Amino acid sequence: MPDDLPADVESSLTQLVEAARTALREGRTEEALSAVDTARTVARNKLAAGEHRNRLLHGCDRVDDLATADPSVAAAYLDAMRRRLP
């Protein structure tokens, strides 16, 4: 995570990824996807272009692709995304 990332952006991304992980594990796929969509918007609007932003956006895209068909793999992507956040 970049050192210059505002605390509110960091907090928002962490909360959204965690909410998506929890929702997905509890079978609330639509809620998980909504949180991922919001995380994607925050990443696009608030993170500087670069590898960190690209990885988070890639994770969001993969969760979208997998949440319904293979929720365990989608959850693994969310776990990886969470580890990249403080």
SSE layout and pairing:
Blueprint: H1 7-25, H2 29-46, H3 51-66, H4 71-83
Explain what you see.
This protein is mainly α and 86 residues long. It has one domain. Helix 2 (29-46) packs antiparallel against helix 3. The protein has four helices and no strands.
Gyration radius over CA = 12 Å
Protein structure class = mainly alpha
List low-pLDDT spans.
none
Count helical runs: 4
What is the total number of structural domains? 1
Topology as a string of helices (H) and strands (E): HHHH
Mean pLDDT: 93
**Helix proportion of residues, in percent?**
over 70%
**Percentage of β-strand residues:** under 5%
What distance lies between the first and last C-alpha atoms, to the nearest angstrom?
Answer: 7 Å
What is the tally of beta strands?
0
Short descriptors:
86 residues; mainly alpha; 77% helix; 0% strand; globular
